Amino acid sequence: MSIVPAAAQVLAVLRYLSRQAAPVPAAAISRDVGLPRSTTYHLLDTLAADGFVVHLPEERRYGLGLSAFELASGYERQAPFQRLARAPLASLVDRTGHNANLAVLHGREVIYVIEERAPGRPPLVSEVGVRLPAHLTASGRAVLALLPPAQVRAIFPDRSAFVQRHGAGPATLTALRALLTQARRRGYATEEGEVTPGFSSVAAPVLDHHAHPIAGVAVTFPDEAVDETERRRIAGHVAQTARELTRRVGGATPAPGIPSP
After folding, report:
1. Segment 160-215, tens digit of pLDDT
2. Rounded to whole angstroms, how far apart are CA atoms 41 and 67?
3. Which region, left, alpha or beta, applies to residue 120 given φ > 0 means left and ψ of -120 to 50 means alpha?
4. Which of 12, 15, 38 is nearest to 27 (CA)?
5. Which of 33, 57, 72 finishes a domain?
6. pTM to 2 decimals?
7. Alpha-carbon Rg of the chain, whole angstroms?
8. Do the domain assignments include residue 259?
9. Three-class SS of residue 126?
10. For labelling, which of 10, 37, 41, 54 has a CA lying 20 to 30 Å from the CA of 205?
């Protein structure tokens, strides 16, 4: 696939602005994006003319414009990520015979955005729109395991951040880090009765093009119905689905060590 240089430069500028906490000078954009200053000003003028960038002349800074907001709103309306994920999750349910879901990290919680229920399986707490403590869920741990340690520490600064549902789960940053280290080593995360007693989950991360985790794919099953061999088989299918979703969103290849079914 051929890349159009001008389009790549425009996207680089927009992506850079989207990561800033406030409008920035053109010189900073030029320096950090790696563009000649003249090119940067031409791109900014073009983007400003179409409303994707706003120029603040008094401050000599640039920020995202209304058209960028409309673009983000359109993304929310279309829910393309959910659309891309629904078929792979349905296939995951067929292959494992258990309920599957997709969750995204929001602060210290995960929000469930898709749930696919297996025939004959009871509904679970992980319905669409439900929020749960990220450190207790397999999906949350799968995502947290690939975040920088400093970011995890910022999310969980002290013991008060470690809420519990049934008296189980990590209560300190040290305990959480041990679970995240285990998840990285395995290539998938688990939880056992920490969300719902008698049920366990296995989850793997979906990555974007920077290899940053954007979601967790999970399967939940009753403990008495699944032995260790079957659990590993389910983990392989979950990891395979996470890889497929990573590919669908144009993400980076997951790190080695994630099992195959």
Report:
1. 889 887 778 899 999 999 999 999 999 999 999 888 899 999 999 999 888 889 89
2. 19
3. left
4. 38
5. 72
6. 0.70
7. 21
8. no
9. coil
10. 10
Nearest to 111 by CA among 100, 127, 122, 99: 127
Residue pLDDT, tens place only, 222-261: 988 889 999 999 999 999 999 999 998 888 765 444 444 4
Q: Are residues 96 and 218 in the same domain?
A: yes
Residue 139 and residue 229: Cα distance in Å, rounded?
21
DSSP letter for 8, please. H
Query: Under 8 Å CB-to-CB from 169, ≥6 apart: which residues?
Result: 133, 135, 136, 162, 191, 194
Same domain, residue pair 154 and 242: yes
φ/ψ of residue 19, rounded to 5: -90, -5
> What residues contact residue 201 under an 8 Å CB cut-off, 6+ apart?
137, 138, 139, 190, 191, 195, 218, 219, 220, 221
